[in-house]
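Sync notes, pocket subgroup
Present: LS, DG
LS reminded everyone that the earlier model was apo-only. Rerun requested with adenosine monophosphate included. Inputs:
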Amino acid sequence: MIVLVINAGSSSIKYQLYQMKSETVLARGRVERIGMDSAIVTHEAEGKPEFREVCEILDHTSALKRITDILVHPEYGSLSHISEIEAVGHRVVHGGESFPESVVVTTEVKQEIRKLFDLAPLHNPAHLMGILAVEAILPDVMQAVVFDTAFHQTMPKTSYLYAIPNILYKRHKIRRYGFHGTSHMYVSHQAAALLGRPLESLKLVTCHIGNGVSCTAVLNGKSYDTSMGMTPLEGLMMGTRSGDLDPAIVSYTMAKEELSINEVNSMLNKHSGLYAVSGGLADMREIVEAMNDGDKNAKLAFDMYAYRLRKYIGAYAAAMNGLDAVVFTAGVGENSPQLREAVCEGLTFLGLRLDRERNRSPERGERRITEDGSPVEALVIPTNEELVIARDTYRLALNRGKGS
Ligand code: AMP
């Protein structure tokens, strides 16, 4: 069965085409700058020349039409006819409390995603545009949605409730939801396989460290607590997001600087984190480079970022009353040995003994970076959210009696 995986953003669509159940990636690509006359389309397929063009693409439906045209293109494409696509899976950031697992798209599901616009104003409207674009271009194809929040729906009340008047939860569903769930779930399964132990017996802290950063206490295979909250702003320090701060700072800053709600939101989401502390650098590669050149602000940003990660890992070890492994994933977690070392250095008291050689080895893929016999392991596991979406979509399509 051929499954198309789509991650629709407000001005972009990223996609991967999978052959299931072999889980082979046949093609991948993206359309960026949707809504402009100079949208950029890039596409690559196994054994085919790379494709790139700049053209006018004004909405998500036109973007998807362009993608499907390329997928069947004799020179660049992988399919003879678009009808070979039997199912489409979408990433959806916010599923609220309605979706503890992936589901097939129906009218009710679309309504529910729409109801959640308030909680994820930057993401859910774009995901719905992606779903509607597929309905327009591939009207007979089954669609499924896979939620970033779903994995965290197992959290107990002690983890997901905020200590504020309960009426706010009842009226507005203000609670911790958590994000990057697809990634935390995937790497925790892979970690169990790498350790050769059943996931149901493990206490893991999974650290998704990319542009967004979150870590999750995974207890016996289930999300027990996670650092992102009602929105992806809470928790760890990120590229441009502040993470945790005293909530009183928000009203105080608004009063002192005469800022509007939008301005203070923008400050905390776009002008904080590594970017603010380093004085303009949000990318970990640039931070490490500047730090190595003696830049003191870059060093402070790096140290704060690592320190906060270490605090969360310690807190989650306490929350689970133990720890078997720390898992590093996503852009920074997979690629920055400096950051992993800075985080792990202070965890020897828990029994985590980093092997510096292994940590710095240019080896890629899933690996252990602790000494042999270390009581607590540290692992690097490349995440693969698209594969999880393809698998869930395939499973749901099979359940509906389609394909093989
Ligand atoms: P992601 O959100 O998972 O795509 O991660 C993107 C982030 O990964 C970028 O902003 C970089 O900061 C970081 N990154 C990618 N490669 C490296 C690297 N070699 N060293 C440090 N950070 C990296």
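DG: The pocket of adenosine monophosphate is lined by residues 210-211, 239, 283-285, 330-332, 335-336 (CB under 6 Å).
LS: The first strand starts at residue 2 and ends at 8.
Action: DG to write up.
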